[in-house]
Every structure is written in C-alpha cells, then in structure tokens.
Amino acid sequence: MRRSVACAALGVLAWVWAAADPAPEPDSASVIRMIDAEVQHRVQTVLGFTDIEHYRVFRGGDETHPVAEMTAKDTYRKGAGKTYTMLSRSGSEIVQKFGLNPLIENEERINNPATVAQSWFTSANYTMKLKPGGIQKLNGRDCYLLSIAPKQKAPQMIDGTLWVDARDGSIAQVDGVASKSPSPFAGTTHMMRQYTQIDGFPMATHARAESSSLLFGRTVVLIDYSDYHLQFVPQK
What domain count does the chain have? Predict the structure, then answer.
C-alpha cells in the first residue's frame, strides 16, 4: 500500500515538473517559414485597402507642438500601387516640401507593382535570425523577436528587430535604423512601426521616425493610421 502511494506521489511530481518545464523554443527556420507563408497569404488574399494617415513633424526637443501637419487618404490597389489624396495641410511650407512630400513620394515608389515585393519582410529581402528568450509579450500579444538585416540598402529597409505573432507569424512591430535616409531631413534615421490585426491581417497603426543632421537638427515624424477598409479576393 505504501509502495503504491509512493509511486502515485512520484507520478504526480513528475507531471508537475513536466508541466512547469517550458516548451522548447522553435528554431529560426520554422519561424521564418511561418513569416514567409503569412506574407504570401496576405498578398494572395488582399486586393486593396484605404486608410487615413495623419503626419506630424516636430523639430528640436519639442514633441508637443508640430511645425507641420498633413492628413491624407491612402488608396492601395494590388497591381496598381498606392495613390494619396490630400485632405489637409498646415504649418511650415518648407517642411511640407522637403520633409512630408518626399515621404509620400517614397511610399508611392515603394508600392510600384513592379518592385513592391522587394520591400516585404520576408527571407528573400532580409537575413533573419530568431532571438533567444522564447515568447515575449507586446501589447498583450505573444510574439517572437527576430534580428533582421536587409540584403540591399533602401529607405524602407530596416536593420533592427522584428516582432511577429507567435501564432501565425504576422508582423506586430518593427524597430531599427533605415539602411538609407527616406528624406533630405537626415542622416541616420531610427524607425519604428506598430501593427494590429484588421480583418485578420496586420496593418500599420502608428509609426515614428527620428533623425538628426547638422543642416536640420533633430526631427521627429509621427504617423497615425486609421479608418481602414480592406478588399479581398472573392471566396469561391
């Protein structure tokens, strides 16, 4: 009887220890395959979208009073690219001309159907490596972190860290340094962009770019994205 009780106790302890033992971390290759598959699913499913984008530019150490603002409607169509409709502008005309206009022009250029695939966060465009530490929380989401390095230099290519949802590999956040300056404002530009799920797909909600140069000093650009409307491939 005592032997049976002892065996049962050992069995319970073994179960507790097994439950407490964390699951093994996935390897980089499996997470990268998941990321690539998620990107392809989005490309094959989403035909287009519209959203409203609000841009604010700050100079020096003041991030309370923007020197220029712009609100635009962004329209993306698969196979056609992006177009912007200006809804409002205010503030410095110089900042509008040499800061905000180049950002819009760069977005339109990036989304040219002939070259847009070169900007995707995939293993074709980036060298990726899973960071140690397993699943980490980001805004309540379980995420894996990967170090990323672009295989070619471009304003939209970021050298830094990518957060992806541990369930499906969808992007949650990217943070790092642009491999090439996106506008005449700067030298090195630090960039961050956050994403949320809209109709099951990751869409940008907030972005921040900070740069500093001898000519323009410290400049911060904040972008808020809202009012998304997505169009999908019809279901058969």
Answer: 1
Global pTM value = 0.86
- Residue 17, pLDDT > 50, answer no
CA 170 to CA 122: how far, in whole Å?
11
Q: What is the dihedral of CA 43, 226, 228, 125, to 10 degrees?
A: 0
Strand-pair partners of 148: 128, 160
Answer for the pair 174, 161: CB distance below 8 angstroms, yes or no: yes
Higher pLDDT, 148 or 155: 148
Confidence at 26, pLDDT banded by 50, 70, 90:
confident
The mean per-residue pLDDT over the stretch 133-151 comes to 95
Confidence of residue 182 (pLDDT cuts 50, 70, 90): low
For residue 76, the one-letter residue type is Y
Boundaries of domain holding 101: 26-232
In the predicted model, is pLDDT for residue 100 greater than 70? yes
Is there a domain that residue 48 lies in?
Answer: yes
Residue 2 lies in a domain: no
CB 71 within 8 A of CB 88: yes
Region for residue 229 given its phi and psi (left: phi exceeds 0; alpha: psi -120 to 50; beta: otherwise): beta
Sequence-distant contacts of 198-202: CB under 8 A, at least 24 apart: 198/228, 198/230, 199/228, 199/230, 199/232, 201/42, 201/45, 201/46, 201/170, 201/230, 202/42, 202/165, 202/170, 202/171, 202/172
**Angle, alpha carbons 208-163-230 (nearest 5°):** 70
Residue 67: closest CA among 225, 236, 218:
218
Distance in angstroms (rounded) separating the CA atoms of residues 116 and 78:
10
